[in-house]
# Entry
Amino acid sequence: MADSAYQWRGLSLDVVRHFFGVDDVIRVMDIAQSVGLNRLHLHLSDDQGWRIDVPGWPELVARSSGYGVGGGRGGHYTRADWDRLRAAADKRGLLLIPEVDLPGHSNAALHAEPGLNIDGVTPPAYHGIEVGFSSLRMAAPDTERFIHDVYRYLADISDGYVHIGGDESHATDPAEYDELVHLITGTVRDAGVRLIAWQEAAEHLGEGDLIQVWDPRLAAAPVLAATERGAQVILSPASRVYLDMKYSEDSKRGLVWIGHTELADTAAFVPDEAIEGLDPRHIAGVEAALWTETLETFEHLSYMLLPRLAAVGEIGQRGRVDWLDFIERLPATARFWQERGWPYHRSPGVEWPS
Ligand code: ACM
# Structure
C-alpha cells in the first residue's frame, strides 16, 4: 500500500516456546494480510528450541527441536518448509523475516552443540519460561564458525532482512557481548542483507540498520544515538503491541509482566509520540509481537491477535487509530473473522456481531 503511514507494518511470531507448523503460520499470515501488514518476523531460536535446519549443523534440530515450553510438542522447518512459507508470504504481500536470537536466549544451541560450550559439556534442555541465563561464549571452539554459518544461511533464505536478536543477554559479560554482536553484525552485513536487532544491541547499529524497540523500561539514549548514525526504528512497545499480554484478569492465557492490554490500550499507541526526542523521520514503522509461552494452538494465537492486531494495522497504515471510526467498522470486520473461523476477543466498547 503505497500511501501507508509506515513502510514497516509487521507482526513477530514466536515459534519456539510453542512450535507452529507451516499451515498454522500461513493462517497467521492470512490474519496479518487482512489487517494491512506487510512483514512477518519469525523468532526461530531460543532457550527452549531451535526451529530451523541449518546446513552443516544437523544436531541443532536433531537435539533441540523436539520440545517447547513444558517439554511438549516440538518441531522445526526444513528448507522445503521454509520455501513454502516464503512463497505463501510473497503471495500475501509479506516479507518473511528470520530471527536467530543470539548471544543470549541460546540454551537450545548450547544443548545441541558441545563445541559451543567452553568445556564441551552441553547444558540440559530447558522447558521453563525464564529468560537471561544462557550465552554463547567467544572462547568456545565452534562459536565463530557457528555464527558465520547460521547467519550466512539466514541471509541466503531471507527476503533481504535478517534479525539477530541481541536482547536480554544478562548472562553475557558486556565486553564479550560486544565481541559476539560485532561478529554477528559483520557476518550479516557482509552477506549483503539489512540487519535488524532488538534495542539492546543499538550501540552496534547505524546506517541502513533497523532497531526494534520493545522495552519501555530501557533507556532511549542508545536508540536515539543509533538513529543519529543512520539507523531506523521499528516500534514494538510491549505495553501497547505485545499481543501475548492478557486483555484483562479474566483472560485464560497470556502473560502480564507489562500489565493488561485491552484493544483501547493498543489503539491509543501513537508511534510519533512513543519515544521522547525521536525524530518521526527515523521511524520505519510498527511491529506487534506474539510470544507463545502460554499459546499452543492457532485458535489461541487468533484470539490474542484479534481484535488488537487490527488496531496495529490501522496505526501502520494511517499513523494512529481514529477510535470512533475504527469501532464503527470493526463489527463488519469481525463478521469476516467469524466466516474465516478466526477466534477473537470481544473487547469492551465495540458492538460485536452475535
Ligand atoms: C523481547 O521481548 N525480549 C524482545
In short: The chain has a mean pLDDT of 98. Residues 167-168, 198, 214 surround acetamide (CB under 6 Å).
